[in-house]
Design a protein that fits this description.
The chain is an alpha+beta fold. The protein has two domains: about 5-100; about 105-245, Phosphatidylinositol 3-kinase Catalytic Subunit, Chain A, Domain 5, CATH 1.10.1070. The protein contains six helices and eight strands, in the order βββαβαββαββααα. It has helices at about 45-60, 80-90, 115-130, 190-195, 200-210, 225-240, and strands spanning about 5-15, 20-25, 30-35, 65-70, 95-100, 105, 140-145, 145-150.
Length: about 250
């Protein structure tokens, strides 16, 4: 299960992202990039972050550690930006934090070269979870200590925004034309052979267990968080089985 920490200080907003995440310090002495329940798509974005980070980790891909962050909206009272104050006010309670990687640099495909197998694994992973936000314009990749790190997976798992139509996306092809690593990913067959066996019901069940019940309640068509977790697992396994239709 994800560790829960309590935010002790709001440091600064990170205005690169559309959902206005914030840098916060917590009572475990850690510093986290926090995404808020009151922003954008709300809990669906945070669920996608947890699920995709867990899958990526299970595939051996580098992602920052996640924590659940209890936020007191009063922490933003000294922030002059009313948008930040409103966001924190709407996000009282449980939010999601990602370990801050100090000194990291945004990935630049013209300056950084990634070895073909790793690039192919990232491409396979993005195709599996339907990541539409790994483009040349917005890679959502960092270089930290000369290694590649994957961040920002809120724009994945699009199916969970409309469960009644989710079956239609099981075998949906993935457009690799705009993917920032597409040209570097020349080991795609090898990546598929390595990653496919790692996506199991056990892994997905473990990953979904990290999502708080609070974020899985009141979903239309599902009687309980348990049933909703099972639906995520079943959908992702169905997509895996249909990979001939989407794999890059």
């Amino acid at each position: 299960m994800l560790k829960t920490v309590t935010a002790t200080r709001y440091v600064t907003p990170l205005r690169e992202g559309g959902s206005l995440p914030g840098l916060m310090e917590a009572d475990d002495l850690g510093t986290y990039v926090v995404k808020y329940i009151g922003a954008g798509q709300g809990r669906k974005t945070l669920i996608a972050e947890i699920v995709c980070a867990g899958i990526a980790r299970g595939l051996g891909l580098p992602v920052p550690d996640l924590v659940l962050v209890e936020v007191d909206p009063l922490l933003g009272r000294s922030e002059p930006d009313e948008e930040v104050q409103d966001l924190l006010q709407a996000s009282a309670g449980l939010n999601l934090g990602m370990d801050f990687l100090p000194g990291s640099l945004g990935f630049d495909p013209l300056a950084h070269q990634i070895e073909p197998l790793l690039a192919s694994k990232v491409l396979w992973f993005d195709a599996f979870v339907g990541n539409v936000d790994r483009s040349w314009r917005n890679p959502n990749l960092l270089m930290w200590h000369r290694a590649l790190w994957l961040i920002d997976h809120g724009a994945t798992l699009v199916f969970h925004h409309a469960w009644a139509r989710s079956q239609s996306s099981v075998a949906k092809p993935y457009d690799v034309s705009g993917h920032v690593l597409s040209e570097m990913a020349s080991a795609r067959v090898e990546a598929d052979a390595l990653l496919r066996p790692l996506v199991t019901r056990a892994l997905l069940t473990e990953v979904l267990a990290d999502v708080p019940d609070l974020w899985l309640t009141d979903e239309e068509g599902f009687a309980s968080p348990t049933r909703l977790r099972e639906a995520y697992v079943d959908h992702l396994l169905a997509r895996l089985a249909a990979r001939e239709g989407w794999r890059p």
